[in-house]
Amino acid sequence: MKIVIVGAGRVGAVLAEAYDAAGHDVVILDQSTRAFDRLPSEFGGAAVRGDGTDEDTLRRAGAADADVFLALTEGDNRNVMAAQVALENLGLQRVVAKINDPVRAAAYAELGIATICRTTILADAVNAFLGLASLGLPGVIAPTGGHHAGHEGSHGASDAPLAENLNVGAAGREA
Amino acid sequence: MFVLVVGGGKVGYYLSKELIESGHEVVLMEKDRGRADQITDEIGSVVVAHDGCEGKYLGEAGCARADIVAAVTGDDEDNLVICQMAKHHFDVRRTIARVNNPKNEALFRHLGVDEIISPTRMILASIEQDIPVHELLHLAALGEGELEIIEAHLQDGSPAIGRAPGDLTMPPGCSLFAVVRDGVATPLLPDMTLRVGDKVIAIGPSDCSASLHEQLIGDNPEAVTPGL
Amino acid sequence: MSELIAPAFRRAVIALAGGPGDARIVRLVAELAKPSHAELAAVHVVEIGWSLPLDADVAGQSDRVQQILDAAEAVTEEMKVPLDAVLLQARDVGAALVDEAMERDADLLVLGLPYRKRFGGDFAIGRTIPYVLKNAPCAVWVVREPKAEGQP
After folding, report:
1. By percentage, how much of chain B surpasses pLDDT 70?
2. According to the model, what pLDDT value does residue B125 have?
3. Is the model's pLDDT at B219 over the cut of 70?
4. Taking all residues of chain C, what is their mean pLDDT, rounded to a whole number?
5. A147 CA to chain B: closest CA distance, Å?
6. How many CA atoms lie less than 13 Å away from A28 in the CB half-sphere?
7. Which residue of B45, B48, B57 to mutate against C (max C Cβ within 10 Å)?
8. Residue B49 in contact with partner chain C when CB distance is under 8 A
9. How far is the C-alpha of A147 from the C-alpha of A158, rounded, in Å?
C-alpha cells in the first residue's frame, strides 16, 4: 500500500516507521527537515520537505496515487486543508485528518472527512485507566456523508467509501 | 448588515473600521489578546479576543446570525476552516476568504467559499496589465471557477487580424462577446473586422486557453512576454 | 466623618452591578449629593452577547433587572434625593458606562468592586474597572466592597 503522511511529529513519525517496516510504500512530508530526525536511520520511505496543503508539493511527492492519506500535523486547520486537497484535488478516497478540537472533528466528519480527535481519545484513555466512564464523544469518527464540497444537495450523499475510511481509522489506532 | 470579521491584522482592522463607518454592525475576532485590546482602543468594543477557528467561539461571536463572514487571517488554512464552519455549522449565507496562495483559489471555491479575495492575484493582474502582454489575460473566474473571462490583445501576427469573429473557430463552450477598441467597449458582432490593437473579451471554460491562444494570438515566438 | 468635605460634583452616574453593594454606594453618593443638590443617575447595564442583536428584548424579560432599579430608587426615596434609574443594553459594560457619563455630561462616575479572587487565588479586578479608569472623561470613584463573611 502507498501511504502518504503529512506531518512528521511524534504520531506521524511512529506510523511512518511502522508502515515502512511492514513493507508499505511510505511518503512523509513536513515543512521542517529537523522533524525528520524522528525517523530511524533505516527508514526506507521518502521524506519530503514541503507544505502538505499545497497541491503541487503533494503531487511532486507522489501523493496522487496514494492508497491512504493521513494528515497528522500539529495544526488542526492544516490537517483539514491537506485532507480536502487530497480528497478534492488529488481524488484520493481513504483520507484521515487529525483534528484535536472535538467540535471541529465532528463538523468535518459531517462534511465527509474521517477524523481522529486526540483530545477525546486521551481523555477516554485516562478515564478507562481510572475505571471512570468515557466522555461519550467519539475519538475516531467515520465520515457521515460523502465529502461534499459545500454545494447544496450533495450533503449526506454516501457515495464515498465510508467503510474503507473507517478501516483506516481503525488501522491508525492499532499501529 | 451584521458582518463577522475574523483576523485582526491590517486587513481585518481596516475592513472593520470601514464597515462600522458605513453603518454596519461588526464583530471582529482576533485571538491575540494584546492585538485585540489595541484594536478595541481604536475602534471600540467590537472585538472578541478568541480564535475564530474554534466552533465554540464562533458561536459566541454571533456567527449564527451573521449575514456575512469574512475570514481575513494571514493563513489560508485558517480562512478555509472559518468559512466552512460558518457555512456548514452556522448556515451563514455568504462567506468571504482571503487567499494568499493563488493556487488555493479553485479549491476554496470548490469547497463552498462564496467569495475569494486574493491579494497576490490582484497585484499579479496589475503587473500583467502594465506589461505589453501578447498572451491571454485572465480577468476573472466565474461560478465555481470552471468559467473564465479572458482578454486577448490582438497584435501583428495574430491569425484573427482582418477576419470577422464569425469566421473564427471557437473552442466548445467559448464565445467572444465584446471588443475594446480605442478605449471604447462594444458588443462583438459576427461581421465586424478585427484589427491590430483590439482587445477581445471572451468567456469560456478555463481549459480553453490553449485553443483561444491559437486563434487570437497565434504562435509568433516573439510574442512571448519577456520577463514572465 | 463629620469633618468630611463633600467633594464638588454636579452630576454623578452610579453603576449598579446588581449585587448587595449597590445600596451602599447609592446611599454614599446620595448623602454627598444632598447638600449641593447634585443630580444623580443610576445605571444598570445588561451585557448582550454577540449571538443576539443589541436590541433583543433581554432586559425587559427579566424581573431581576427591575428589582435592581427599584432597590436603588428605594434607597434615595427614603433619603428624599431624586434619582434617575435607567437600564441600558450594551455589548460591553465599561464602554456603556463611559458613554453614559459622557452623554449626561457627568463629572463623577461611581462603581462598586466586589471582593473576588480568580482561579489560582489572585485578586481579580475584572475588565470593566480598568476600562473605565482608562477611558472615563470625568472623575471615577471605585468603592471596593468588604470581603463577604467567610471569604478567604
Report:
1. 91
2. 77
3. no
4. 89
5. 10
6. 30
7. B45
8. no
9. 8
Going edge to edge, which strands form the sheet with A2-6? A46-49, A25-30, A2-6, A68-71, A95-98, A114-116, A140-141
Q: Does C55 touch chain B (CB under 8 A)?
A: no
- Assigned domain for B126 exists: no
* Partner-chain contact B64 C51, CB within 8 Å: yes
For residue A79, the chain B residue with the least C-alpha distance is B77
**Which residue of C51, C52, C58, C134 is the best one to mutate when testing the B interface, meaning the one whose CB has the most B CBs within 10 A?**
C51
Is B228 within a domain? Answer: no
Average pLDDT, chain B: 86
Q: Looking at domain C11-144, which of 3.30.479.30, 1.10.3470.10, 3.40.50.10380, 3.40.50.620 is its CATH number? A: 3.40.50.620
Query: Does C contact A via 3+ CB–CB distances below 8 Å?
Result: no
A53 touches chain B (CB under 8 A): yes
Q: Same domain for B42 and B150?
A: no
Among B102, B121, B140, give the residue marking a domain's end. B121
pLDDT at B146: 78
pLDDT for position A30: 96
Q: Is A85 on the interface with B (CB under 8 A)?
A: yes
On whether both B54 and B148 belong to a single domain, the answer is no
Q: Domain of A112: which CATH number? A: 3.40.50.720
The answer, as to whether pTM is greater than 0.80, is: no
Separation of alpha carbons C51 and C58, rounded Å: 12
Residue A79 domain boundaries: 2-174
What is the pLDDT of chain A when averaged over all its residues?
Answer: 84
Q: How confident is the model at residue B132 (pLDDT cuts 50, 70, 90)?
A: low
Q: Where are the domains of chain C?
A: 11-144
Q: pLDDT by residue (tens digit) across A77-117?
A: 999 999 999 999 999 999 999 999 888 888 888 888 899 99
